[in-house]
Design brief:
By secondary structure, this protein is mainly alpha-helical. Helices cover 70% and strands 0% of the residues.
Length: 274
């Protein structure tokens, strides 16, 4: 695989996503709801990365079967997550992260949101590198790692969907008002939905795996980027701050018992207090 054409396709993803996120900025401003940011990023990333995956590479006049499969996997992820976010934005209260940012930034909110949205375009470009390396695997045969990658992606989608449904069921029970969900997957990780979103991106390094092709190491970019964003960027930290603000000591006790991201058995209350 030539590095130059690969970089050219990644550059195309970057330009396309800058346009998508600019449209997202105007939309969230008009709707007065920062939650639309996530809608535009998810759908935009899905479409641009799927199209990029289908671009024929050197010596090919049309996409290979693997390119088509990977484009489909990207679109399935995007459609599932993007639709979930759309329904949440339209039906539920505003995302606590953006509410807190609006309070913190005050009159500078929209100016800073402009930068926050546009900076997400380069992140998508980085994610596309992993997708492209996997999609352009030259071996025409179906390999075990192809099946492993597909299983990782669908397993992660199922896990994330289960986590979302467990949270929805918890909130629907009026007796849980004011409480913190610590049931099911939420007893093992404070953010199982983010955890599965991270593991989903391991599908592309799995499919790309080939020790004879050094470029396949680039496929690790996506899971590394997603881990940093979700664990230390716009995922866990702002949501944790919002939850402490709304739930107080109940959430602090939850923090003491349950792992913030990677799963582990919940700690005993006495151990947590020690």
């Amino acid at each position: 695989m030539s590095v130059l054409p690969l970089l050219a396709v990644i550059g195309g993803v970057l330009v396309a996503m800058l346009v998508v996120m600019l449209a997202g900025w105007f939309t969230q401003r008009a709707a007065n709801d920062g939650g639309w940011t996530d809608v535009f990023w998810t759908y935009g990333t899905g479409v641009t990365c799927a199209v990029a995956a289908l671009v024929p590479f050197a010596g090919m006049s049309h996409p290979t079967w693997r390119q088509v499969v990977i484009a489909a996997l990207v679109l399935i992820w995007s459609l599932r997550l993007g639709t979930y976010i759309v329904l949440r934005v339209r039906r539920g209260p505003q995302d606590a992260r953006y509410v807190d940012l609006k309070s913190e930034w005050g009159e500078r909110f929209q100016g800073r949101m402009f930068g926050l949205l546009l900076i997400q375009a380069p992140f998508t470009a980085l994610l596309s590198a992993s997708i492209l390396v996997a999609a352009r695997t030259p071996d025409p045969a179906v390999r075990i790692v192809d099946a492993v990658g597909v299983l990782i992606l669908f397993g992660s989608i199922l896990g994330e969907t289960l986590a979302d449904r467990q949270m929805a069921a918890f909130k629907a029970d009026k007796s849980n008002k004011g409480k913190v969900c610590d049931q099911g997957l939420w007893a093992w990780s404070r953010h199982p939905n983010y955890l599965f979103e991270f593991t989903l991106w391991l599908a592309y390094p799995a499919i790309a795996f080939d020790l004879a092709r050094p470029i396949t190491w680039l496929s690790l970019i996506a899971p590394a980027v997603m881990f940093c964003i979700l664990r230390y960027g716009t995922g866990v930290p702002p949501l944790e701050a919002a939850m402490v603000k709304s739930k107080g000591d109940a959430y602090r006790r939850y923090q003491a018992r349950v792992s913030p991201f990677l799963p582990r058995p919940p700690r005993d209350t006495k151990d947590a207090a020690a």
